[in-house]
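Lecture 7 notes: from sequence to structure.
We start with the chain below.
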Amino acid sequence: MSLAESALFSAIVPAPFGYMGVRTEDGLLAELVYLPNRFQEKAPSDACAEKTAQQILAYFDDPDFRFDLPLKQCGTDFQHRVWRAISAIPRGQVKTYGEVAKHIASAPRAVGQACGANWFPLVIPCHRVTATGGLGGFAHHDDESGFHLGVKRFLLRFEGVAGYLGESDAIRQESLW
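Predicted structure tokens for the same chain:
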């Protein structure tokens, strides 16, 4: 990791798959970024970064933890509709891009683009949206063996989603809508 890369973040928090980069601006969370193992932990540089780091660690201790962070306003009205729908998906469940699209009267590809544009992963759990026939993409990445889809697989297993656990751990998925 270069000093310039580390300087982009207000904190770098350890995560089971690597790290989470935290960017803050004017007392608000501006962005969360999944980071690979080549990064190193970085102490929070402000109160918002400290609160965010504490909440990320709390989530990794308990996947039912609910984030409560001041988020910087970003995104389009459409993205906000998608992000609200995603935020309503409970831990342990997933919806397909098509199901989310139907719920908000849109198209699956547009939902996928809005998921990829999510500035606050974990807080807005876009990992809970999958393709009809499998995992789908994640954070604008679709390399099956790549880092980002590995993070998505980890998060789905961590949250107890059926199909990402051992067969004996399968849980029932209930309809949200």
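Points to note: Strands lie at 11-15, 18-25, 28-35, 95-96, 129-130. Residues 77-169 form a domain with the Arc Repressor Mutant, subunit A fold (CATH 1.10.10.10).
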